[in-house]
Design a protein that fits this description.
Layout: E1 16-20, H1 24-33, E2 39-44, E3 57-60, H2 66-75, E4 78-81, H3 88-95, H4 104-110, H5 113-122, E5 130-134, H6 139-145, E6 149-153, E7 163-166, H7 169-179, E8 182-187, E9 193-201, E10 207-209, E11 213-218, E12 221-227, H8 233-250, E13 254-263, E14 267-274, H9 284-287, H10 292-301, E15 313-320, H11 328-332, E16 336-340, E17 351-359, H12 363-367
Helix pairs in contact: 1-10
């Protein structure tokens, strides 16, 4: 920790924000921190990571490398993260030396799908029916969830990894053998729309939420985000309030992205949450007064939160694999904003960048298509 900051005090411009993770989210955090006068130090296992290309300093080492963690703590005034599945022990080791946001208490919940669902229920929010499944014991699953169901690993897994649909007890038994001993079973939920809201919370408890957005996934990977979602104002307000309530229950500092299922019949159901910037919030860079990335920097550094209000409607589209080669159209269109992440290896389905198209306020609601 530098002399510029002390525990419990705001980190002034000129300070250093440490980032666990070197992917595109870390890259965009660093890009947002620079105009506010902050430098970023990144700890990542990857050589030539997207974040390292724009960060002030990069430490290439595993997340559980004690010497690397100590070096990051020496450099940084506060440490945040770009993905939630870093080892909790690493965050705890950092927290003993430098403020971390979010801290290991938040990760203990958000790294475990069962604890996430339980937190939502305890906060008075609706979810699909769920049950813990341990060591292949399907008793609670049969009684609470039934079939069909989705079996998921409680920890790790993203973009559809670590989960399987099961329609019979026999399929569930096979899935348990493949997925492991610590699982959660969730009822299959017919839904009309997938929504998400990103809320920011400061150390002093100030909470601001971005607008609710509408997400479309293909093969379990986010394809497009439409901002704002085409939903009633009552549903929009309910989703924003739910995200703010969860951020408060966690006493989180930073960002909390909350994903929901919605249908007229079932209403709003909490699905998953992540204590970091979220793919469905990339549209905020151009379309909001304050982006999700700037808001994160403000929150973890103890600055007043920015105004999350929309200045435009927007559609964000992920560029997967070789689609990033088709950059000519977006760079020629003044209403399109291209972001390429600097990843050297192109793989099918890999997020290589995104494009945000700006539209006049109200355009999505007016045309119904986006």
């Amino acid at each position: 920790m530098t002399a510029a900051a002390r525990p419990g005090k705001p980190v002034p411009p000129g300070g250093v924000v440490g980032i666990l993770g070197g992917g595109q989210l870390g890259r965009m955090i660093a890009l947002a921190a620079a105009p506010l006068g902050y430098r970023c130090a990144v700890l990542t296992p990857e050589e030539d990571s997207p974040a390292s290309q724009v960060a002030w300093h990069t430490i290439v080492a595993p997340y559980d490398d004690a010497a690397a963690l100590a070096r990051l703590a020496d450099l940084a005034d506060v440490v945040t993260l770009e993905f939630e599945n870093v080892p909790a022990q690493a965050v705890a080791a950092l927290a003993a030396r430098v403020p971390t946001a979010p801290d290991e208490r938040v990760l203990a919940v958000t790294q475990d799908r069962l604890k996430e669902k339980t937190l939502a229920r305890e906060a008075g929010l609706a979810t699909v029916a769920f049950a813990a499944v341990g060591r292949g014991d399907l008793t609670a699953m049969r009684e609470t969830v039934g079939f069909p169901a989705i079996l998921k690993t409680r920890r790790m897994g993203y973009d559809g990894k670590g989960q399987r649909r099961v329609d019979t007890p026999e399929e569930a038994e096979r899935a348990c053998r493949d997925l492991g001993d610590s699982l959660i079973a969730e009822a299959v939920c017919p839904f009309e729309m997938e929504l998400s809201v990103i809320a920011a919370r400061s150390p002093g408890g100030e909470i601001r939420a971005f607008d609710a957005v509408e997400n479309v996934h293909e093969n379990h990977i986010l394809r497009t985000t439409r901002a704002p979602a085409r939903i009633a104002e009552t549903v929009r307000a309910e989703a924003q309030a739910a995200a703010c309530r969860l951020a408060g229950r966690l006493s989180l500092v930073g960002l909390l992205a909350v994903e929901f299922f919605w249908s007229p019949e079932a209403g709003l159901l909490v699905n998953e949450m992540a204590p970091r910037p979220h793919n469905s919030g990339h549209w905020t860079i151009e379309a909001c007064r304050t982006s999700q990335f700037e808001q994160l920097v403000r929150a973890v550094c103890g600055l007043p939160l920015g105004d999350p209000a929309r200045r435009h409607d927007a559609t964000m589209t992920n560029l997967l694999g070789a689609e990033a080669d088709d950059w000519a159209e977006p760079v020629a269109d003044p209403d399109m904003h291209l972001h390429l992440y600097g990843k050297a290896e192109v793989r099918e389905g890999r997020k290589m960048g995104h494009v945000t198209r700006l539209l006049p306020l109200g355009a999505h609601i007016a045309d119904g298509n986006g």
